[in-house]
Amino acid sequence: MSGQGPEETASGTGGEAVPAPGEAVSGRFAAIDVQRLRWFVAVAEELHFARAARDLGIARQRLSRTVIELEEELGTKLFVPGAQPTELAESGRELLAAAKELIAAAEAAEPEPVDDGGERLRVGFVPGVTVTKWERIWADRFPDIRLHLVNVPMAEQESALREGRVDMCFVRLPIDREGMNAIPLYREVPVVVVPKDHPISLFDQVSTADLADERMQDAADLDEAAMTMELVAAVSGAAIVPHSIARLHHRKDLVYRTMTDVPETEIALAWPAASTGDLVEEFVGVVRGRSANSSRAPQVRTPERSAKQPVRKQSGKPAAKQGGKAAAKKPGKRRGR
Q1: What are phi and psi for residue 149, nearest 5 degrees?
Q2: Strands in 189-251 per DSSP E
Q3: Closest Cα to residue 129, out of 159, 157, 163, 164?
Q4: Side-chain half-sphere exposure of 278, counting CA atoms within 13 A
């Protein structure tokens, strides 16, 4: 009996290509997005959710929910339930091996970043901040200088600035002001979010005393506000968040009411003091509402604008008539050079 050669093993008896074992495993998980794979790998290698979350710069609750979603999606447990310390299940080990292959393939397929040499300003913003108006003004004023807007989790608002991932960032105070410039912009009123049929929904305004007997959901992590809203809807509790966050995660089954005795939150525009430059100053001017001609910084000129000399308007005054004072004035003698 003759043995099969490599070609026969790869092709099978029917002539159709049969994936190698490693390819088959990777294929099962190919639909999982790379970010979730990276988060799973962090936990699988660390075998500790809190440390993995810290290394990733995300909330532990968010990381745990991602793993739970993966388990539900795959229909299997990735970690041994109740194991102390955390232990990978057989399916988890299988996913870990495939995830590393898929992540490596995704990184290899990413195109090299192209630097076109043009100027740009990278501005981050935390959840709840709307930047559309300032983006429009910047585009009108500096059409050849790209404004790159970056959605920054609130947990990373300071690290994004200090690590240079963004040049400026709309942050929610407080932040460590050491080496930072920050311009307070506006305050946000806090609101309480409750189910639509909750008795509190009949109020116009609410105090903390009105919530004394309520089951309050922890809403400190605003990056997890969507999950907080789900919990409020599911268990008929309540949560206090800034007004913009309640708007951002609005649901038909929830309502929000203004709180009267909870401190407001404050939004500011921050940037590293050492990075202050013309583009930064110009964006500060845009945010503060200064016109193009009233900016305190040296005006940033694009190549197109630099080539065009400003057109001087006519004064509107009639030219001096022949024989008038201007015409009658005799020119003085020219001095020799």
Answers
A1: -95, 135
A2: 190-195, 205-206, 239-242
A3: 157
A4: 9
CA-nearest of 184, 185, 211, 217 to 199 is 211
What is the Cα–Cα distance from 58 to 155, expressed in whole angstroms?
7
CB neighbours of 178 closer than 8 A, spacing ≥ 6?
none
Residue 29 CA neighbour count, 13 Å, CB half: 28
pLDDT string in tens for the chain (337-residue length): 444 443 333 334 444 443 444 444 456 788 888 888 989 998 998 888 888 887 776 778 888 889 998 998 899 999 998 888 889 999 999 998 888 888 888 877 766 545 555 689 999 999 999 898 899 899 999 999 999 999 899 999 999 999 999 999 999 999 999 999 999 999 999 999 999 999 999 999 999 999 999 999 999 999 889 889 989 998 888 999 999 999 988 888 999 999 999 999 999 999 999 999 999 999 999 999 988 776 454 445 444 444 444 444 444 444 444 444 444 444 444 444 3
Assigned token pair, 109: 């397929």
CA distances from 97 to 29, 60, 254 (A): 11, 23, 42
In sign, the C-alpha dihedral spanning 180, 187, 151, 301 is negative
DSSP H helices, the chain, are 6-11, 21-28, 34-46, 49-56, 60-74, 90-109, 132-141, 157-162, 225-235, 243-248, 278-288, 303-307, 325-328
CB-CB contact of 34 with 101 (8 Å): no
First CA to last CA distance, the chain: 113
| pTM of model > 0.90 | no
Could you give the CA distance from residue 267 to residue 242 in angstroms, rounded to a whole number? 11
